[in-house]
Here is the input.
Amino acid sequence: MAVSSHAETKFSALLKEQASYEEAIGLMAWDMRTKAPKKGVDGRSEVLGVLSAKVHEIQTSEEIKTLIDELKGRASSSKMERAVEEAEEAYLRTVKIPAEEYREYVTLQSQAESIWAEAKDNNDFALFQPYLEKLVDYKRRFAEYWGYEDHKYDALLHSYEPGMTVRILDEVFPKVRKALTGLLSDIQASDNKPDPAVLEGHFPKDKQAAFSEEMLRRMGYDFDAGRLDETIHPFAIGLNQNDVRVTTKYDEQDFRTAVFGTIHEGGHALYEQNISKDLAFTPLADGTSMGIHESQSLFWENFIARSESFWKNHYSLFQTYAPDSFKDLPFHDFYKAVNEVKPSFIRIEADELTYCLHIMVRYELEKALIGGEIEVRDLPKLWNEKMEEYLGIIPSSDSEGVLQDIHWSGGDFGYFPSYALGYMYAAQINAAMRKEIDVDACMENGDFEQIRKWLTANIHKYGKLKKPLEIIQDVTGEGLNPDHLITYVTEKYQNIYQLSR
Amino acid sequence: MAVSSHAETKFSALLKEQASYEEAIGLMAWDMRTKAPKKGVDGRSEVLGVLSAKVHEIQTSEEIKTLIDELKGRASSSKMERAVEEAEEAYLRTVKIPAEEYREYVTLQSQAESIWAEAKDNNDFALFQPYLEKLVDYKRRFAEYWGYEDHKYDALLHSYEPGMTVRILDEVFPKVRKALTGLLSDIQASDNKPDPAVLEGHFPKDKQAAFSEEMLRRMGYDFDAGRLDETIHPFAIGLNQNDVRVTTKYDEQDFRTAVFGTIHEGGHALYEQNISKDLAFTPLADGTSMGIHESQSLFWENFIARSESFWKNHYSLFQTYAPDSFKDLPFHDFYKAVNEVKPSFIRIEADELTYCLHIMVRYELEKALIGGEIEVRDLPKLWNEKMEEYLGIIPSSDSEGVLQDIHWSGGDFGYFPSYALGYMYAAQINAAMRKEIDVDACMENGDFEQIRKWLTANIHKYGKLKKPLEIIQDVTGEGLNPDHLITYVTEKYQNIYQLSR
Here is the structure.
């Protein structure tokens, strides 16, 4: 059934207006975190508020609703069909929440974030507790408004990873956890531990920047469509497909922060730079989910840049950037040290093996919270119990325990699983790629072009045209499957720690 | 007669929305000229188009018209009254031009600018001529739509310098010209010419940047509310009063580009940083005219930074930044060289004495063009004749003659006089300031705080609350008076060139 091209033209114009506000907002966000003078922040925040309100206004307008109804199921292309679907999703997610309640929630979010920071600084969970209780209440209600089939938490998961459910996670996570905790105890019993102290040593900031840039260039990151800057909390941001910026930070006593951080953000950036250009100015010109986005950053950070093959080619180059500290360090000591596994309290500092265990602690707690099986006041105790159960360590304070992450203070329940999903997706993608490409040979030859092209052809170019589980199915021939991650870590760490098989 | 505060609230919200778009546009403009990767420009231009259209939409909306009618003459404060006046001005300037004609004009502008660049590169006036003819036609018609009392050109002057007229300029400019050309011929006959070659010498870019930053800091530029970056065509831009950015460029063989350029842009930036904070998010939070803005940059660049008193304090500091080139150069040779006067073809490279003559060439031509006394085809010949008459030199090509400036290609007729007005205003301001402050003592002591505060109290803080000639009247007790500029340049250059008095 054909639909008037007039409606599609109007619909596209609205999407373009929305995307324009979002691009301006993106640039302001980048600027505030990299270049903006500190006194300008208050004024800029007001401008952000005005532009965000315009996005909200378009997303919930009568005009877009009418166009969605007119175009749904009758769009002239699959691209237009998906754009209509995304617009409807955004429309419904927003209008289902009573306007007054949403406004109160937004106010609470910004209060809660600064209270959380104070609570974390002072190790004072009680200060944060009443705010967190309210946030949980809102999110429980939002989940009801949005609707779900099995578990209330599914409604929240959907915001970050469409199609993901408690049912799937409850099947997958325990399996992964069992394998990881088993491996972890073997590792802890090993007599062949790497010595991370060998990585300490002065590495001048400008040399780290030069090496990081060189790594981005080799990955295929296009510096004519992006740039690398310094910031406090690194991120990558796609303003449009031809302007995707990476940020990093430098620790002159520990190059890992900048080098692995830049490669991680570079993985995100490659995704955004290579989304098909014909999706520009639509909501489809974006990564399809948090989990798939994370799969791209983790693929490059771990499956490439922490692999033996990668360093076989790059270690001697690396040594030329900081010869004073590294020229006498043998390759294998270096390679093993950058892959040290050790349970620790802070998620963002965790190694690739224990990282997923940190996520599972959070998943179990927030699922139970939203489901009403536990309450906010129980969190500190339960957090520590889960940490002991999964990682074998107990935080000495809430600051390095339940208060460490910013997410809950912004009401972001359902986000954490994306990180673990990113690992599993990355492992699946890695396995699928290896059926077609000799990935180790590419790394040993420093030829990343094939790898980048494969990712673009199979993942990047689609943007949101395909949904996350559709991407995974099409790329790997199966749904979410944790076995690939388990196989990967098992083989890798058996080797590094010389475990018996 | 009191008016509903409801109307003022609605009016303020519209102004804030407009100012928010303008701030976002400003940041995008800064970014495109300093940081943005080159491939991102096309997408960014589309976003700029969308946001500019929103500004236009607000300025010409029925809603704002109704509010203007409701509030005019009945606003609750002088600030609100002026904001209403500015909004009405913007409304009328826009709606008086038929929408279709305006759209055609905007398209023509962007075509003309790239054709102009090509014509300039190839010294091909004939290529540009048809575009310039159309632009002149539009501007003649716009002037009719906008209306004027005496001269059609007044309607264009008004866009840049409200209150300025051909009648005033025709009285003032010949007087200034006579004085300047007389002085110029004395200077050219002098046996005591400075030697500009003494200024040539390597000055490393990072040292120039450090010295430029130090100068900005001493002027009172607040780096917590701004920043200094490198660009191709330097500018200053106020995003909000707490985020006013300066740009400069570096020539390692000629420090003057960066040092005087930075101080010039710093003068603009001090104006914007010190506009009263309670004008934020209104059209009043801006310089009151191009001429007054230019008076601020020129005051700092010339009246301060090219003065003998200034260098008495700063020359030894300057020498420490590039000792290899300047440690043996005597102070007076340096001081005289940075004030060399010499007729040249390119306006933006002109010295402070001949600069105004360049402006008068352009003024006479564009006034006659808009008035219909001459036509575009006559320009190259007339340009060269005027250059010979005023400056005594004839360009060898149109590229270094009539094609040198970008302004006309953007339809900016009426803008050039602002530059000369800026000089005259600066001289008047300088004279007024010296009645209250010992400016030379301040410079010799490196104490610019008094100067900056005086400028803020008398000029900066008002933003657009006062109109340009109102500022000049209030500061100096008189209207536009060229005698101060004449006295200043006469005394200064008699001294430097040791002319008989």
Q: What stands out?
A: The interface with chain A takes residues 16-17, 20, 23-24, 27-28, 31, 35-40, 42-44, 46-47, 50-51, 222-227, 239-243, 280-281 of chain B (CB under 8 Å). Chain B has a mean pLDDT of 96.
